[in-house]
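step: validate -> pass
step: tokenize input -> pass
step: predict -> running
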Amino acid sequence: MTAQELLSARLARRLREARVQAGLTVREAAVQAGISNHTLIVKYENGTVAPPLDRLHDLARAYGTTPAALLAEHDAAMPVIAAIDQATSTQLAHLAVALENLPASEQEPGSE
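step: predict -> pass
step: emit ->
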């Protein structure tokens, strides 16, 4: 699989998971996101069509998440990204300080 195919498959899976977690049917998701044809949701979720960025934003809003979380490279990053997107500027400043002070032994190899 190419990098693009992996990204498309990951996004399709996450869109479905986010919709299900939001408790929405395909038709309800379409209404919430302002999509007139609910079959587009099915196409996004099975990866046959990639949503344009404005549509991805609408879907993320309808599902209670963010486009960044849906596009995260690693599944474990999704809740972190969503929390960062909702953080206040004070919380972000504290997070930046905490990350800067993270001991080298707790950082990923090669991240320095």
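step: describe -> The two ends are 30 Å apart (CA to CA).
step: cleanup -> pass
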